[in-house]
Amino acid sequence: MHRKNKVKDMSSPLSSLSMEHLMQMACQKTNLCDWGDESFQYPLGKLLEFFNEMYPEDVNKRFSFAYTIADILGKRLYIQDNFKSYQEISGIPVKQPLFITGLPRTGTTLIHHLISRDSIWRVLLYWELLYPYQRKDIENFEAYAVNLTEQGLKALYSLRPEFIYRHETKATGPEECFNLLRITFYNIAWPNEWYLTNYLEWFLQQDMTDSYRYYKKLLQLLLWRKPGDHLLLKCPAHLFNVDAIFNVFPDAAVIWMHRNPCKSIASGLSLLSVFHDLSAGPDEFIKLYMEYFKQSLHKTMEIEKSGTNRLKSISYRELIRQPVEVIRDIYHRFGYPWDPDKEKGILKWLTDNPQHKHGTHKYRLEDFGFTETDIRNRFSEYFDTYGHLI
Questions:
Q1: pLDDT digits 0-9 by tens, 155-173
Q2: Spatial CA neighbour of 79 closest among 89, 70, 69
Q3: Which of 35, 70, 173, 230 is a Cys-bridge partner for 25, taking CB atoms 3.0 to 4.6 Å apart?
């Protein structure tokens, strides 16, 4: 399975999305076939199993999924080639990273952009999250990767123009790091993109520590390519995994954004509806998606109750009202250097990027078969504990 073999029948994903065939496709495309640690085969095997159950005969989806997986596998091969060729990568420290998380649509993007104005942060850009490795066969790989990323975004916004006012993305702008977690095959993005109910149910039972160990190696690779003082990392999916973050990154700090779930969940479902028709109301997938939100909140609440000083709750309402003060308090809490000049960058970004710059994102819980009462009952523990912040 690990030899570089020529793939004779490229249509076989239609009949059998097998791991062996997809790994062969990746080897053929990259001319590499050293996988390094092969523990990724377990989550990949489950993902393929659940996809085959869900879409046994959908030709278009099977082709698209096959090449998506082969592309991720190709990236793993390039990454492993970097680890082998440049052994100093494994010794690069990841010092006091700052993680930003919260339920989707709770202001994580806003605070990410505001904090990223400060030069002390090594901010991850969208293009390098898609291409975190260095290719030896391309002289100016950064320009090549930026161009590919821009082409992909152009195609996305052409196909789904409404996406820009739900979540604007720029190839050379800061972006959330779910694409790094996606490479581990343990990630909420997989069921979201393909509406995989069985994968989501399985995912809710998994320990993500090993996934974050590989994620840390990717961060070391990115720091090797472009050094920086402190990594600024943002992803709503981190909320489900704060325990794994603290296990893997002993000196990490975590910002937990809080916003009324009646608004954030409606906005999150609206974002999901760009890719899937949710007009029929909550099905089994959406019920499990709600369970994912509930578990994410509960797990992080338990960590905060433990008295850790590495987790700080932030009110979205307060961030909007007094952004400089909120960010200054974060720096002081975690010991990052602050000086008054940082205010200029924050205020300039707010001036240049007014709310609803690309149009208003409209959404209602009722569009997805929920009411505010449903949400308040489902997340009553959270409302009781953090109502003062939302």
A1: 988 877 766 656 678 999 9
A2: 89
A3: 70
- pTM of the predicted model as reported, rounded to 2 decimal places: 0.92
Q: What is the pLDDT of residues 22-55, one digit of tens each?
A: 999 999 999 999 999 999 999 999 999 999 999 9
The distance from CA 386 to its chain's CA centroid, rounded to whole angstroms, is 24
Strand partners, 122: 231
Would you mind telling me the total number of residues written for the chain in this entry? 390
Contact 95, 336 (CB under 8 A): no
Which CATH superfamily is 96-124+184-390 part of? P-loop containing nucleotide triphosphate hydrolases (3.40.50.300)
What are the CA-CA distances from residue 314 to residues 76, 248, 386 (Å)? Answer: 35, 23, 10
**What number of other Cβ atoms are within 10 A of residue 55's Cβ?**
18
Domain boundaries defined on the chain:
1-85, 96-124+184-390, 126-173
CB contact at 8 A, 224 and 88:
yes
Cα separation of 196 and 199, whole Å? 5
- CA torsion 27-28-29-34 (nearest 10°) is 20
